[in-house]
TrEMBL record:
<feature type="domain" description="Cyclic nucleotide-binding">
    <location>
        <begin position="14"/>
        <end position="77"/>
    </location>
</feature>
<dbReference type="InterPro" id="IPR000595">
    <property type="entry name" value="cNMP-bd_dom"/>
</dbReference>
<protein>
    <submittedName>
        <fullName>Cyclic nucleotide-binding domain-containing protein</fullName>
    </submittedName>
</protein>
<dbReference type="InterPro" id="IPR018490">
    <property type="entry name" value="cNMP-bd_dom_sf"/>
</dbReference>
<dbReference type="Pfam" id="PF00027">
    <property type="entry name" value="cNMP_binding"/>
</dbReference>
<dbReference type="InterPro" id="IPR014710">
    <property type="entry name" value="RmlC-like_jellyroll"/>
</dbReference>
């Protein structure tokens, strides 16, 4: 369930736009922001020891990214 955009903005959230290929965060980063997808898609991926990309998920509008990690003080997988 998404948080209403007007509510987020009223609490100081700032919309951000990313281009294809932009990195929002890296593996083992500690999340510092809540990201809610309003358009486009986000690919969550991992590279194995041989450098092969493993796609963990493709997130669509209507989803948020790693929000749980903000509350449990864990790094991104």
């Amino acid at each position: 369930m998404l948080i209403a955009e007007n509510l987020l903005l009223s609490y100081g959230a700032e919309p951000e736009t990313f281009e294809r290929g932009d990195i929002i965060f890296n593996e083992n980063d500690t999340p510092k922001n809540y990201y809610q997808i309003t358009s486009g898609r986000i690919k969550l991926n991992h590279y194995n020891e041989e450098g092969k990309e493993l796609i963990l998920a493709i997130l669509q509008p209507g989803l948020s990214v790693c929000e749980l990690l903000l509350f449990i003080n864990k790094n991104t997988p």
